[in-house]
């Protein structure tokens, strides 16, 4: 089953040219076939260990049943290759070693068998890849007798080999078909909901039949993000996402293209969920924390008048405006425009608003992949821009307040955003699959993840 799941790895991470929004294009390149073939040798050998019914020797006056056992299935050659416009072809050379329990001594013989099977890859009704064997052949060579040849009548060898070939011809392709058919349940995990946050999920589905060439197989994948069970809907336009050729790392097993729309959906989800909002609270006992009325009173006289005794301040940060992710070649940025209300506790321990600020922060966005999740970190680009939206403490000298607010606001904001981005979003995959040494490339309007794949049970 590991081979089947390995082929499932191949077929589920395979997404391609997308026309849906948000769009993801995943290509599994021909380099992945060698990995799947090598990983699949053991489970394929196990699947080919078919039981052989007793051979009925009719050469004598009494019919003698002879037990036959497969001792070993050697698989010196296994190759997978793409069939353009269709699926995947399996070619294998196998050597079956048999023990014939005959009297007076057992007989050992080897039967070389060549296997050919064509696997059709199609789109299922629930938006997952569906695989099936469309054609399968077993080609037999002449058996080689290891011992006991002189004591074995030629009249026995011929019908014995005929019996074995007849059994294998019926069973080998059936075993391969069962192995491949078992993939479809596993491939169904592609459409399962993957958590993004406590109240949000992402679901991936194929939107058309796979595109298969001699060099890769790919699928159009539609990604839908959900908040409290409701989908995040973006304004639609007529421009489909198409993953250009020759992007990513040369020779990589997988190339995953992530459109601008996926990032727009993810950031809209965070904004609608309120995950980007935060509270920043000062503490009087921290000497290096300027977030208190005493420090603020030095630049705003009315604050000093209303609060002769130092009290901690609180910043209530809300993002009502949708953040903007911009993707340019080798450069990803995030622009947020939080509304910040500066609060101080009054004599009744209730908070009163001192003033509010409109803030603009431009951030550099660094992206990376851990196992199957796209994650990120941010850093501030340039200065934090601050303007007064309203004031209950009279005139505010903006230059002094900008310096003060920028210092107390910037680090908590980065910590908060980086904590969110470290959770990440799961890329299309099946269970137990992860990326190996993935590289992330930023292009104009899309991201590419390129690297190897590893499947572990």
From TrEMBL:
The keyword Signal applies. The keyword Signal applies. Residues 1-19 form the signal peptide. GO terms for molecular function: lipid binding. Keywords: Signal. It holds the Pfam family LBP_BPI_CETP_C. InterPro entries: Bactericidal_perm-incr_a/b_dom (IPR017943), BPI_fold-BPI/LBP (IPR051660), Lipid-bd_serum_glycop_C (IPR001124), Lipid-bd_serum_glycop_N (IPR017942). Residues 248-451 form the Lipid-binding serum glycoprotein C-terminal domain. Belongs to the BPI/LBP/Plunc superfamily. BPI/LBP family. This is BPI fold-containing family B member 2. The gene is BPIFB2.
């Amino acid at each position: 089953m590991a081979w089947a799941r390995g082929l499932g790895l191949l077929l589920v991470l395979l997404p391609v040219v997308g026309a849906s929004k948000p769009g993801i294009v995943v290509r599994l390149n021909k380099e992945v076939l060698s990995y799947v073939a090598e990983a699949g040798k053991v489970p394929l050998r196990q699947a080919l260990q078919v039981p052989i019914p007793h051979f009925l020797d009719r050469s004598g006056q009494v019919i003698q049943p002879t037990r036959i056992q497969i001792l070993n299935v050697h698989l010196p050659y296994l190759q997978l290759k793409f069939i353009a416009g269709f699926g995947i072809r399996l070619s294998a050379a196998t050597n079956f070693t048999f023990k014939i329990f005959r009297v007076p001594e057992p007989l050992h013989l080897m039967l070389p068998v060549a296997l050919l099977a064509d696997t059709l890859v199609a789109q299922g009704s629930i938006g997952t890849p569906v695989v099936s064997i469309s054609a399968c052949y077993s080609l037999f060579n002449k058996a080689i007798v290891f011992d006991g040849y002189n004591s074995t009548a030629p009249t026995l060898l011929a019908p014995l080999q005929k019996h074995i070939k007849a059994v294998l011809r019926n069973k080998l392709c059936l075993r391969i078909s069962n192995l491949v058919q078992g993939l479809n349940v596993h491939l169904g995990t592609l459409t399962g909901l993957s958590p993004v946050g406590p109240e949000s999920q992402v679901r991936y589905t194929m939107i058309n039949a796979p595109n298969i060439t001699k060099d890769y197989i790919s699928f159009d994948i539609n990604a839908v993000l959900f908040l409290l069970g409701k989908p995040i809907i973006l304004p639609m336009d007529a421009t489909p996402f198409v993953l250009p050729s020759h992007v990513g790392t040369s020779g990589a097993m997988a190339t995953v293209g992530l459109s601008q729309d996926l990032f727009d959906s993810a950031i809209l989800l965070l904004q609608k969920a309120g995950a980007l909002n935060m509270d920043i609270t000062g503490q009087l006992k921290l000497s290096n924390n300027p977030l208190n009325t005493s420090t603020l009173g030095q630049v705003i006289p009315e604050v000093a008048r209303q609060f002769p005794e130092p009290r901690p301040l609180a910043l209530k940060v809300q993002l009502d405006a949708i953040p903007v992710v911009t993707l340019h070649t080798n450069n990803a940025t995030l622009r947020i425009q939080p509304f910040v209300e500066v609060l101080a506790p009054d004599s009744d321990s209730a908070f009163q608003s001192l003033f509010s600020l409109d803030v603009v922060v431009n951030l550099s966005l660094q992206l990376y992949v851990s196992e199957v999740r796209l994650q990120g970190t941010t850093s501030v680009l340039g200065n934090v821009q601050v303007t007064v939206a309203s004031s209950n403490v009279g005139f505010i000298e903006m230059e002094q307040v900008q310096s003060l607010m920028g210092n107390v606001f910037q680090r908590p904001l980065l910590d908060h955003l980086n904590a969110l981005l470290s959770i990440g979003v799961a890329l299309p995959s099946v269970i137990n699959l992860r990326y190996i040494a993935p590289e992330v490339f930023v292009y104009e309007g899309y991201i590419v993840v390129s690297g190897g794949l590893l499947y572990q049970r």
